[in-house]
Amino acid sequence: MVWKKREKTVKRGRKSKREQALKAVQKLDGRWTLTREIALWAGMPVQVIARYLTQEKKKGLLEHRYVKRNDTTLCMWRRKK
Prior knowledge:
Elements: H1 17-26, E1 33-34, H2 35-42, H3 46-58, E2 62-69, E3 72-79
Antiparallel strand pairs: 1-3, 2-3
């Protein structure tokens, strides 16, 4: 009797929060994008995505600026040139 090797199962379904956030951050290009919009791409809360954005900024990959709109201050991000 010959035993068959078990096939390895490929991890599917939900990605880790970190992978999910970094994938959204990679979508950034030279255009300015609101933190809210990036959070929508990632499907995560703004506070969570903001944490990953600041980590990438500290590495020197991103830059940010603040914009005043309708009595609130919003943060915009883009990839450094």
